Automatic annotation (TrEMBL):
This is DNA polymerase delta subunit 2 isoform X2. Keywords: DNA replication, Nucleus. The keyword ATP-binding does not apply. It is found in: Nucleus. Residues 184-396 form the DNA polymerase alpha/delta/epsilon subunit B domain. The lineage of its organism: Eukaryota, Metazoa, Cnidaria, Hydrozoa, Hydroidolina. The keyword Nucleus applies. It comes from the Eukaryota.
Length: 445
């Protein structure tokens, strides 16, 4: 039966990721301590307001240098978690000298970890009623308690920033009035020998309306945007792999990477002919490895970027779609916190970054980032309506609500190459569901 061409629904859109782009005057010879200073300074007043709301306007907020033994007060600073299992260059040098190397760990936390509060180039050990296991290095926190005779700060209570300000507290006024879908995917894994080419073609045909019954087509005509959240290329295409093989094999690896980029260009060209597409870089994609990752260079996509509907964006990435603020990353920040904390659930980690008001608190300590010295672009000033993370082990979602009527949809997007799953978000009511595909040309809504 002949399939009639469907007309795709549209939705307002604006890219608001300016803060994640590097300026022309980039400096890599700066120290990272300035980033912590900027972070604390930028978030200080916000967390002071939270502290006064929680413990009363008359509570004493003091500097570390002014606290006195036994005096109840609130101190604001940045958490630092000292972990003996954390890898370091000094340990690597020691290993080269014949010391038995430490075995690799999925997590670098232990019960012997020590928690510090740092502020104004001073630090103090935190003890008492604060959970070290869920503490994340780099988080700005307000702790209430007193200094004991040993010089440690005994915590009786603590508070993070909480959900940020939401410009549009009445979410019903922001939502579109009809069904409009945002399609999220990640981990296409192009270039892997085990890749499923048919799977990618199914995605293209479904989105373009060439596949499925009338019900499928009626849904996909309402998909207004597709976001690919990193790792479009497979890990096997990384240039780093060439350092581990003989020189005569390096050309094969480089050629494989080039072919993978060409294939990605072809896929984006087909998608861009039917739907707006945003391509975020990821851990295995050809761009800078430290955060924020800059857009994949346009010279790699001569075909697809000819379409005005295809754009290469940053990681992290933020946009306004249908009046809703959408914020997301390709997953490095969540993966890093998973390794350096006792969180086991990725959705809990995603929520924790939102409650701490920071996308990547472990940068630059354990996750590399650009040495910003005048601002910290990872601070979440405005609460997003949709907060997603790509390349996670499985699909998960949660709708959380704040004290000031904020509503945020959290979404963990799994890699397409491993799970055959995409994620659809209804912009009308923030409902979210997975779309699982298989090579028998069937879909599971």
């Amino acid at each position: 039966m002949k399939i009639e061409k469907i007309e795709r629904d549209t939705c307002s859109y604006k890219n608001v990721s300016d803060r994640f782009y590097f300026s022309k005057q980039r400096k890599f010879d700066l120290q990272y301590f300035q980033l912590y200073t900027v972070r604390l300074s930028a978030m200080r007043q916000r967390i002071i307001d939270v502290a006064k709301k929680k413990w009363g306007k008359d509570i004493k907020i003091m500097e570390l240098s002014d606290i006195k033994e036994g005096e109840d007060c609130v101190v604001i600073g940045i958490l630092f978690r000292k972990m003996e299992l954390q890898p370091s260059i000094l340990k690597e040098i020691a290993q080269e000298e014949g010391v038995i190397p430490l075995p690799p760990h999925e997590k670098y936390t232990s019960t012997d970890d020590i928690l510090y509060l740092e502020a104004q180039q001073q630090r103090i050990v935190l003890i008492g009623d604060i959970d070290v296991s869920s503490s994340i290095t780099g988080s700005v926190v307000a702790v209430r308690g007193h200094e004991d005779s040993s010089g440690k700060f005994v915590v009786v209570n603590f508070s993070y920033c909480g959900l940020p300000y939401l410009p549009c507290p009445n979410i019903d006024a922001c939502l579109v009035k009809e069904d409009r879908y945002l399609l999220l995917t990640s981990g296409l894994g192009i270039g892997d020998l085990s890749e499923n080419c048919l799977l990618l073609q199914i995605v293209i045909d479904l989105v373009s309306g060439k596949l499925g019954n009338e019900h499928d087509q009626s849904i996909f005509k309402k998909v207004v945007r597709l976001i690919i959240a990193g790792n479009s290329l497979s890990k096997t295409t990384q240039d780093k792999e060439s350092e581990k093989v003989a020189k005569y094999l390096q050309k094969r690896i480089q050629a494989k990477s080039v072919e993978a980029v060409k294939q990605l260009d072809d896929i984006l060209m087909q998608l861009g002919s039917t739907i707006p597409v945003d391509v975020m870089p990821g851990e295995f994609d050809p761009t800078n490895q430290f955060l924020p990752q800059q857009p994949l260079h346009k010279c790699m996509f001569p075909k697809s970027l000819g379409h005005s509907t295809v754009q290469s964006v940053t990681n992290p990435y933020q946009s306004m779609i249908g009046g809703l603020r959408v914020l997301g990353t390709s997953g490095q920040n969540i993966d890093n916190i998973y390794q350096y904390s006792c969180f086991d659930n990725r959705l809990d980690i995603l929520e924790s970054t939102l409650l701490r008001g920071h996308i990547s608190p472990t940068s630059p300590d354990t996750l590399s980032c650009y040495p910003f010295y005048t601002e910290d672009p990872f601070i979440i000033d405005h609460c997003p309506h949709i907060y997603f993370v790509g390349n996670q082990p499985k699909f998960e979602t949660r709708l959380i609500e704040g004290n000031d009527k904020q509503k945020v949809l959290l979404v963990c997007v799994p890699p397409l190459e491993k799970t055959f799953t995409l994620v659809m978000v209804n912009l009308q009511n923030l409902s979210c569901f997975p779309l699982t595909l298989n090579t028998s040309l069937e879909s599971n809504f």
